[in-house]
Amino acid sequence: MFLYLGPGLGGGIIAVITGVFLTIFAFLVAIFWLPIKRFLGFIKGKKTKE
Length: 50
Prior knowledge:
The chain is mostly helical. It has 1 helix and no strands. The chain has one helix at residues 6-49. The longest helix has 44 residues, at 6-49. The model has no long low-confidence stretch (mean pLDDT 85).
């Protein structure tokens, strides 16, 4: 048996999948990139003061 799901459900599925991937990407940026960026700025600031 085949069910007609319609274009709205397809768009919703695409939106949910995109949202999940963007959430994972934002999580990885917050966990890894921002602390590294802050540390590099700290190192650069320390070198100019000396």
